Amino acid sequence: MTAAPEAPASAPASLVRGRWIDHWEPEDPDFWERTGSKIAKRNLTFSILAEHIGFSIWTMWSVLVLFMGPEYGIDAAGKFFLVAVPTLVGSILRLPYTFAVARFGGRNWTIISAGLLLIPTILAAVVMHPGTSYTTFVVVAAIGGLGGGNFASSMTNINTFYPERLKGWALGLNAGGGNIGVPVIQLIGLAIIATAGTSAPQILFGIYIPLIVVATVLAALRMDNISSVRNDTGSFVEACKESQTWIMSFLYIGTFGSFIGYSFAFGLVLQNQFGRTPLQAAAVTFIGPLLGSIIRPVGGRLADKLGGAKVTFWNFAAMGVFTGLIIYASSIESLAVFVVAFIALFVTTGIGNGLTYKMIPAIFAGQARVAAAEGADPVAAKMKARRISGAVIGIAGAVGALGGLFINLAFRQSFLATKSGDAAFWAFLAFYVVCVAVTWVVYLRPAPAEAKSPRLAYAGV
After folding, report:
1. Is the pTM of this model over 0.90?
2. pLDDT tens for each residue of 143-200
């Protein structure tokens, strides 16, 4: 656990000590080719593994509610609230998890955060049976929110390893690999329901408890800390003062908030709106999160090539179109059209997630270039951009994840009031229209002729 990370013979021995790397310059092409690329890829690999399992545990209750038959005495509204609780807790935890990377080191915090996943998994194994009080289920589901924090610390950590030109792909791959934890646990749940029935949720815990241990051990053996990343509350304060922080957080509500919210809710919507059995619902529930996860790196790659703002604009427009198609399918009671449109909506949420995390570092790198052109020290401007973008990733991740809470609460209220999810979908459609407008106004509309400096859109966002 204390072996030094691999570094070429040409690298000075003083650059690494134990699992701490004292010199890290990914923007230097020579450094990246000789030293950085290999180390970054290794850390990315094991970051994805730990984050993947974190997502699985975070969304575990979207699977467990499918095991809750009439004997549990919980109605549809109660189940929607139950899956909303870990979303809320995971969203809140994303802020402290972001800064834990700087406080403890990326490797060290991955070990801790992965190990903590044992708590909600073991507790769920203990209470998951008929006769447990609803309050107990809510408390244990809330503890499951621990898995939601892992994403923010993982993204913040990987952000420091990669150069600007590769961030879109690296962050998209990291996030996409983590997001796949959602459909994977849903697939495992499907397999259990299909083979052992809805009375055997304990099998799920027997699978994931050993996986958590494996991810924790591998993080300890194969990951590294970067010593130049220091706990910097100043960057958090600066990020909070940046209007771009809140604009990107708002847009992330529309992309990741939609992804995680629909991941929790899809199976319940199919059961309660179309009368699907748990097995029938589970048979299609995983498809949307799977495709949304796989395509996330593509969003980052599109942003690298075409510019994040332009693709984000059209992606939100597509989200609005597919939401409208869902509403239409519901009105004609077409399950096939409903499922296809919902899965297409998942795909656009995945693309949007990749776009957002490319845009954040690009925005602040653009600000650094503008500052340098106006006379600021280029090196200091780049370092500031790197610090603030890391803080913004954490803030946007926390705020954006709250979208999942809003979605499940909207579904809960919609089913309580109308026995249908249609009212909730109309609200989501209106929100996506607002996201289209915000993207245009902030990043894409032409700059005034008298503008003294280019807006961020013209800096490569």
Report:
1. no
2. 999 999 998 899 889 988 998 788 878 887 888 888 899 999 999 999 999 999 999 9
Contact present, 72 and 379 (Cβ < 8 Å):
no
- Give residue 233's domain range: 25-459
**For the domain that residue 61 is a member of, what is the CATH number?**
1.20.1250.20
- List, as one string, the DSSP characters of 154-206: HHHHHHHHS-HHHHHHHHHHHHHHHHTHHHHHHHHHHHHHHHH-TT-THHHHH
Q: How far apart are CA 70 and CA 79, in angstroms?
A: 12
| 39 half-sphere exposure, CB direction, 13 A CA radius | 31
Q: Which residues contact 218 (CB under 8 A, 6 or more apart)?
A: 46, 49, 50
Q: What is the pLDDT of residue 456?
A: 54
List strands edge to edge, sheet with 20-21: 16-17, 20-21, 225-226
Tell me the two tokens of residue 166: 């590769």
- Retrieve residue 153's tokens: 């610390």
pLDDT digits (tens, 9 = 90+) for 348-387: 999 998 888 778 888 888 888 878 877 888 888 887 887 7
With a CB cutoff of 8 Å and minimum separation 6, the contacts of 258 are 319, 345, 349, 352, 403, 404, 407, 428
User: Contact, 282 vs 193, CB < 8 A?
Assistant: yes
pLDDT of residue 43: 96
The total number of structural domains in the chain stands at: 1
**φ and ψ at residue 66, rounded to 5 degrees:** -70, -20
CA angle, 125 as apex, 122 and 127 as ends, to 5°?
Answer: 110
Distance (Å, whole) CA 169 – CA 256: 17
Dihedral sign, CA of 42, 209, 89, 75? positive
Please, are residues 383 and 234 in contact by the beta-carbon 8 Å criterion? no
144: DSSP letter: T
Asked, for residue 369, whether it belongs to a domain, the answer is yes
| % helix, strand, coil for the chain, step of 5 | 80, 0, 20
φ/ψ of 225, rounded to 5, equals -105, 150
pLDDT along the chain (461 residues), means of 10: 40 52 89 93 96 96 92 92 93 89 91 97 96 96 94 88 84 85 93 92 96 97 86 75 91 93 91 90 90 85 83 95 97 95 96 83 82 80 80 85 90 90 96 96 76 51 66
Interior CA angle at 107 toward 101 and 112, to 5°?
80
C-alpha to C-alpha distances, 190 to 204, 266, 343, nearest whole angstrom: 10, 14, 17
